[in-house]
Amino acid sequence: MSEAAPNTPSPYIDTTRPHPARMYDWFLGGKDNYPVDEEMGRKVLAIEPNVPVLARMNREFMRRATRWLASQGIRQFLDIGTGIPTEPNLHQVAQGVVRDARVVYCDNDPIVLAHAEALLRSTPEGAVDYVQADVRDSTAIVERASKSLDFSKPVALSLIALLHFVGDRNADGGAGAHEIVSGLVDRLAPGSYLVLSHVTADFQPEKAEQVGSLYRAGTASLHPRPRTEFEKFFTGLEFVGPGIVSEGEWHPELGEPVPGEEDVIKAGYSAVARKP
Known about the structure:
The protein is an alpha/beta fold. It has one domain (20-274): Rossmann fold (3-Layer(aba) Sandwich). The chain has 10 helices and 7 strands. The chain has helices at 20-27, 35-47, 51-71, 90-97, 110-114, 116-119, 138-145, 177-186, 205-218, 227-232, and strands at residues 76-80, 102-107, 127-132, 156-160, 193-199, 238-239, 268-274.
């Protein structure tokens, strides 16, 4: 598909409070952000000046993982927590390897919805679509994505820099991050893959707490998880080598190095695993 964004009302975007997606865009040097996002972003940089490098490393991990998966024969990709588009985006990387790759982006954020048209640019042989849904509603995601993807065949599920904004099981019984992932993986065919990146406090606990406090005071909760909790997302799956590593350590030969990454202290985990 290459049509415009879904026929939905124009989203309301609150420009009076910082937003994680727009802050991430600002860290990456994008233009889809507002002064309030830059203000909060500068407060984060006062705590950890390397955040822009870390953000670029995270995006490069996504691109390397996508490139590797496409080279392994994966032709279907479901990217949840898409965020504001940055080029090259996932579908551009996948279709650069296999032109008939089919990609569905998913996000519940009105900011992303406003930019959805920029995502829907596919090769003639492939397909690109956008689904507006919350990661907590796996049934709705799979149902809507099924218009473009065949879930009886392998799918690469990407959750890049998303789950650290999702808490554990809520007091009211709502699904937490681990239950959400297991529910999505259960709907994937054997031979599918899970791609994750996630912030941790294992390496810089004091800075992680300070940054987390800033986000909580703004518009989002931040939930850095230790390696043991990150590993639980992959229960029942088979890790692709080199297993759980920092973003820059996952098959660096598949992409270009990010300037400055050799001087950055680790701040997150990443991994790719296959569903047997």
